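Thread: Newbie trying to understand structure tokens

Hi all, I'm a second-year student working on a class project, and my supervisor (Dr. K.) asked me to get a predicted structure for one chain before our next meeting. I've only ever worked with sequences, so writing a 3D structure as a token string is new to me. If someone could post the tokens and maybe explain what I'm looking at, I'd be very grateful. Here's the chain:
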Amino acid sequence: MKKKLIFLYGGKSPEHEVSLETAFSVINALDLNKFDTFPIYITYEGIWIQGPKLTDKLTFSEQLRFKSGKERKFATSDQEVSVGELISPAGISFESENTVVFPLLHGPNGEDGTIQGLLEVLNIPYVGNGVLASAAAMDKIIMKKVFADAGIPQVPAVSVRAFDWKEHREEMAQDIEGLLTYPIFVKPANLGSSVGISKATDNRELKTAIDEAFRFDRRVIVEQGVDAREIEIAVLGNDTPICSVPGEILPKGHEEAFYDYKAKYEDNSTILIIPAELEEGVLEQIKEYAIQAFLGLDGSGLARADFFVTKNNEIFLNEVNTMPGFTPISMYPMLFEASGMPYNQLIEQLIELGLERYEAKNHLQHQFKD
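---
Reply by user tm_fold:
Sure, no problem. This is what the structure looks like when written as tokens:
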């Protein structure tokens, strides 16, 4: 019997468009002979619209952007709009006992534990990390506390609340300059894909960067810049995760640039070196830190761990992404492709890992008996 696979994508998030591209790539890599596959588009307003069953490859990503209508259909040209049926989020719990949900949502309301919490309550198997790992890794402030507790080295950082910044802007900027040295990076606490991230080289740029980050979140993290290589490694598994080969990111301009949203998804200017050249001891330490971080978050399924490596081979864990992108230029699938696991096999492995975790949780006792 075929498994029924439901894709969730889009969402109330600044990373909505990234999610759409991810869904397009993953769906087109799927073997439709093995799965009955249904797309569910979540609009910017949070409305759920289910499209028709997938029976063939998609020709362009905009086919996955639905409006509600009586007859579900995919657009046949980029001048049309696909049509789907409005559904309640809870409605997916009545689909089938053989159903697996694949949340391809990035950022808030998808990667932060919220959609995972819904699926847990509905008792539906799903791909990827659970509530705790998703929420903790999404929040860069909490994530850093978890990694610090595990003894994993990180660059110095300061957290800032919007309320405090509004009331004490000048004093806080001076305090940050007393703790960190330029260049400084400013990030919203709860976003990915480099949305809202800015580099500051002086007081004016610092204030502008913090103001920009507060457009996307009420909490911001300000990090020490470091002269280092950007190394990423992919993690796959549940209780006994494995690592891929490492990859290195060289944004356009190298020393002066950083891996921002445009470099990741729009201009293709970034150079990805896979596998990255690292000394054996450095590579083994990165793998060890990546596994420690994954297990420390209680991760499951997948994650991408991002590191800085200095000229002196100092290693700093930058962050862990629990739902990394799967676009054609995304690092995570490319790293496992280079490790001997093709894209379609990786997707099927993630589905199996989701089912494995679901079965393990279902064997737990849910009723107290003396």
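A couple of things are worth pointing out once you decode it. The mean pLDDT is 91. The chain is about 30% helix and 25% strand. Feel free to ask follow-ups in this thread.
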